[in-house]
Each structure stands twice: as structure tokens, then as C-alpha cells.
Amino acid sequence: MSGRNKTTDREKNEKIRQLREVMGVTEQQARQALQSNDWVVERAIGAFCEETSSSGGSFHHPSYHSQTSSSSSSSTKFDRKKIDQLWANYTDSRDTTKMNLDQLLHFINDLQFDPSEREILILCWKMNASKQGELQRAEFANGCQELQCDTLEKLRDRLKQLNKDVENDNEKFKQLYGYTFNFARSSTSMKNLDVQPAVAYWKMLFSGNNKQSQRFKLLDLWLKFLEDRSNQRSITKDTWDLLLDFSTTIKPDFSNYDHDGAWPTLIDDFVEYAKTAQTQSSSFNV
User: Fold this and answer.
1) Do 115 and 108 meet the contact criterion of CB atoms below 8 Å apart?
2) Per-residue confidence (pLDDT) for residue 32, from 0 to 100
3) For the chain, how are helix, strand and coil distributed in percent, rounded to 5?
4) DSSP-assigned beta bridge partners for residue 99
5) pTM of the model
6) What is the model's pLDDT at position 263?
7) How far apart, in whole angstroms, are the C-alpha atoms of residue 46 and residue 79?
């Protein structure tokens, strides 16, 4: 019976891998740290950082040094110690393993963004945040390492650039879009996504310049359709994914839409709704 609560060898190996990736330690160091912290990765990371702070030294990530030494074009070096200090500015000393919602909002405010801006969704995506409203220490450390940002200023500039990249690169937009569904429903145990947050994230994702609006010219009509469809309470993963395909492949007049295709019923219903709306609009303009 007690074995059910024990960490399996496979889980231990995965945690060792995660800790080594984040902290750049040896396998033996990672194993010892995890054993001393009940195999909780965040606690082990905290222990390493506390040890670094108390010794007055900085923690060195081997993979980082190999990257920076081979890159002569980099004008400023990534400093892991700055990340530890930055993290400490936004966490409570009673729990340094994560930022809670209030702390996360403080962090976003210092980045000079609004929580509703797409840059914040990109931030969560690049840090691989697993749950809305909080950020784990390992997610923050990995994300800053990947982005090579160790100050608020660098992170702010990088997010602005990534937002431009998403605007101009359909593949990057698709990756962000794909990440969003699971992230948006992460704070619940539901398989599907409630309509209200789905609408909010669609607005966030498709916001931007004219090129963005061209991705889904019927966005406003789609949102009006959902508003009028009062019995529609949730969005399936299939509908979420295929709406992106729909937005990029189907003409505004639906001349290339195949009702016998593999489209979700909700999208079929939307096409009928939109055709009726277009017909009524045309009759008013006669």
C-alpha cells in the first residue's frame, strides 16, 4: 500500500534530468539534492540557490558557458545569479518555489505590460508555464535561460521582439496557438475550455496589426456567433485546433468550405450563421 506514494525510479530519473538541466549540476549532485528534499524539484532548486547565496558565489551553468564562449557576437553575458536575484524580488520568503497570482501581476507590471497583452501569453509560452495564475521557479529559470534574459529590461525587449516574430511567422503563431488551449484550462480539471476564457484568448491571440487580422477576418462574427449561442458553454480541443485551419484556409464567402469535410459541428453551424448574416447585410445594402 505504501509503495503507491513512493517516487518510482522512472520519476526519479526524470526529476534528476530536470534538475541537471536547470542547475547544470552533475547527476550525483542532483540525486543528493533531490533525496534531501523529498524528490521535489522546486525545493531542490531552492536549496541550491540558498547555498549559492550563503556562500557569496554565483552558480555556473556548464551549458551556458559553452554557448557563450562559442558565440563571439554576444555583447552581454547571461548571468544566472541575476536570475536568482530577480526571482527573489517576486516571491515570498515563506514559499520561494513559485510566484502566486499577486506576485505574478507585480512582475508583469514591472515588465510594463498589461496582463491582457499578447506578450504576456508569449512569456508564459516561452517559460512553458503549466498553470494559469502562477509561475514555478523551474519554469522561470528555464525560460530566462532559453531567452538569455537576466534583467527586466532584456526580458521586456525580448518579448516585444517575439511578439513581432509571432506576427510575421505563421509557424510560430501556430505553436503559440497550440500551447494556449491547455494553458487556458490549466486551472480547472475540465477536458474542454469554457467559452468565456476561450473568447478572451482568441482576442489576445488574433490582436495586432492588419496582418494579424487577416489570419481570421471573421473573428468578430465568430465571437458574435458564440455570444448569440447561449447554450454553448465550452470549446473542445478539436474545435480549437481546427478553427485556426479554418481561419487560414476558408475564404470569407465560404466558397471553398466543404460541409462534408471533417469540420466540427460548431464550425458547420457557424458557417450557416455567417452566411445568413452576410445575406441579411447584403439585403440591407441594396
Assistant:
1) yes
2) 84
3) 65, 5, 30
4) 135
5) 0.71
6) 95
7) 17
